[in-house]
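To close the chapter, one final illustration. This time we ask the reader to focus less on the individual chains and more on the assembly as a whole: which components sit near each other, and how the overall shape emerges from the parts.
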Amino acid sequence: DVKVTQSSRYLVKRTGEKVFLECVQDMDHENMFWYRQDPGLGLRLIYFSYDVKMKEKGDIPEGYSVSREKKERFSLILESASTNQTSMYLCASRRQGAGNSPLHFGNGTRLTVT
Amino acid sequence: AQKITQTQPGMFVQEKEAVTLDCTYDTSDPSYGLFWYKQPSSGEMIFLIYQGSYDQQNATEGRYSLNFQKARKSANLVISASQLGDSAMYFCAMRDYGGSQGNLIFGKGTKLSVKP
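The assembled structure is written out below.
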């Protein structure tokens, strides 16, 4: 089974802090994604990466950056955390190519910015 | 732009009964894929079922089936013989072939509660 692991389940940070959310997958997937989930809004794409060192902006990239130095690891960075970034963050990966290959998700990181 | 609409914020179903969760989509691309995910209170997103736009038959996976009506642009999830463990959020999603390398566009979800 594909395993996508997010380093923290819960995080509490202060406004202005630099925050790193880590995600690791063990199935050699090319594509990796970061979503945020808010009640009533569903999942919204922040950034994605289709290969090492490659990244593309999603629908809501403002205030975030990402890093993919190794194929298995995709990091989301909040340069200066703000209270409106309090949310559930979900990392996902998939094998590139097959149109029917689903996204495999981690368990999520619930971030609170105070 | 592609869009997924789930019009039922919440639904109740009696244990052992069947339930249909609605999903409509909008796309101008003739080639697309539709997915359903389950999210229990624990937070993990669990893939349930997939339907491709060119698939001739409706997808089925155990107690899950997808009522795919292409002309109406709907892809409703049917859960047969509901169980208490089916209580969760359910998300319909569509694969965006517009260049985002497999990104899924998600609806806002439906919260299903199964009553004993």
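Chain A is about 0% helix and 50% strand. The mean pLDDT of chain A is 94. With these observations in hand, you are ready for the problems at the end of the chapter.
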